[in-house]
Amino acid sequence: MPYDGYWKDLGTWNTLTEEMATNQIGKGIISEDCANTHLINELDIPVTVIGVSNAVVAVSPDGILVADKEQSPRIKEVMKGFEQRPMYEERLWGWYRVLDYTSEIGQEVMTKRVMVKQGKHISYQCHQLRQEVWTVVKSQGLFAKDGVIREVRVGGDVLTIPPGALHAIKAGSDLEFIEVQTGSQLIDEDIERVYLNWDEVEANCRFVKG
């Protein structure tokens, strides 16, 4: 259907800030002598901007950008060829945030905080190149591993998932756990999904107590 209303391409930080109702999102301070400066802070730490005008300061788990607004479109040019693992991602089932990542010869270690929304679940899957250890830090849910489903909850449940083990988790209410991955390669391609639907998981696994 044709549309003849207001439309604007928000493809750069400059054009995005022109449409913001406020010059600050998130924790921080912009001093009074800053003119036409915007702060967008997604972290839980304060950011202070003093005496800088016509600038955008964007702070996220993936990095920090400080740029003159008119020069902000150059970020694509400056970052060309730069590869970095995403530090925060939203998924259909919730989100995860990378807390730490280290790499040595033949061994990588990554720590995440993972949140699964109430009633949502992670697919029944396995990995061949890594081990995972999950520590439940909030709420409760159902954990499936190699054909067995049991209840897990905050207060001591630590779940060890060796390479090749099938596993999934479903949140009773918003569930959070700390995930520590260790392996020779921590790559997104190292995943085999067996069941995408939780009903299939329950149909092919048995419940146990404890």
Task: Outline the structure in words.
The protein is mostly beta strands. It folds into two domains: 13-78, no CATH class; 88-207, Jelly Rolls. The chain is built from three helices and 18 strands. It has helices at residues 13-18, 75-78, 198-203, and strands at residues 24-25, 28-30, 38-41, 47-49, 55-60, 63-68, 88-91, 94-104, 107-116, 121-126, 130-138, 140-145, 148-153, 158-161, 167-171, 175-183, 192-195, 206-207. The protein has a six-stranded antiparallel sheet, with no helix packed on it. Strands 17-10-15-12-13-18 form a six-stranded mixed sheet. A four-stranded mixed sheet has the order 1-3-5-6. It is elongated and about 65 Å long. The model has no long low-confidence stretch (mean pLDDT 94).
Task: Describe the secondary-structure layout.
Layout: H1 13-18, E1 24-25, E2 28-30, E3 38-41, E4 47-49, E5 55-60, E6 63-68, H2 75-78, E7 88-91, E8 94-104, E9 107-116, E10 121-126, E11 130-138, E12 140-145, E13 148-153, E14 158-161, E15 167-171, E16 175-183, E17 192-195, H3 198-203, E18 206-207
Parallel strand pairs: 1-3, 2-4, 3-5, 13-18
Antiparallel strand pairs: 5-6, 7-8, 8-9, 9-16, 10-15, 10-17, 11-14, 11-16, 12-13, 12-15
List keywords for this structure.
Jelly Rolls; 48% strand; six-stranded mixed beta sheet; six-stranded antiparallel beta sheet; 210 residues; 3 helices; 2 domains; mainly beta; single chain; 18 strands
Quick take:
With 210 residues, the chain is mostly beta strands. The protein has three helices and 18 strands.
